[in-house]
Amino acid sequence: MMATAACGGCTLACSCASVTEGKPEALLDPVKFNISHCLYMVQASYSMNDMIQTAGHSDQGRVFELAAELFAVLATPMRLRVLSSLCEREKSVNELLAEIDTTQPNLSQHLAVLFRTGVLAKRKEGTQVIYRVQSEKAVALCRSVCTQIAIELDEPGTMAEGQSLTPRLHEGST
Predict the structure, then answer these.
(1) In the chain, which ranges are continuous DSSP H helix?
(2) What sign has the CA pseudo-torsion 96, 98, 103, 105?
(3) Model confidence, pTM
(4) 8 vs 132: CA distance, rounded Å
(5) How close are the terminal C-alpha atoms of the chain, in Å?
(6) pLDDT tens-place string over residues 53-86
(7) Measured by CB atoms within 10 angstroms of the end CB, which terminus of the chain is less buried, N or C?
């Protein structure tokens, strides 16, 4: 069974029925929807190599290389802020600058990387450049990780040992 939750135009899907106890509406409640549990259930069932081969990819090295490139693009807090802002709707550079505390040259560099890698699309409207999300899947990945980390920050100690995405938060508690 595939259940889907949408937030701000970006979609997050989960096929793990135990996460929602068979209730798709539970996906809308971030306390009930424990993303790391879903990731753990998938990981426990299949090795990464099994999942890659099942998807029909024989060149595992290339799959890992491309995944690492995507993670490198998304590994900057500024780019995550940009993606979060653009989940709502497309925006001009000036609108993004009003929402994100940075300089225009810095923002432009990050927008260029996100555009060049296909995460964002852009168009000209007069003298303005308008950006929008191009890769919903990349944004869904960011949203799922950021949501889980926010839950862990808000509710420390609720994750089973070894299941946290932020193990450094728990180092001092043991």
Answers:
(1) 17-20, 35-45, 48-54, 60-74, 77-88, 93-99, 104-116, 136-154, 167-170
(2) positive
(3) 0.65
(4) 13
(5) 38
(6) 655 656 778 888 988 999 999 999 999 999 999 9
(7) C
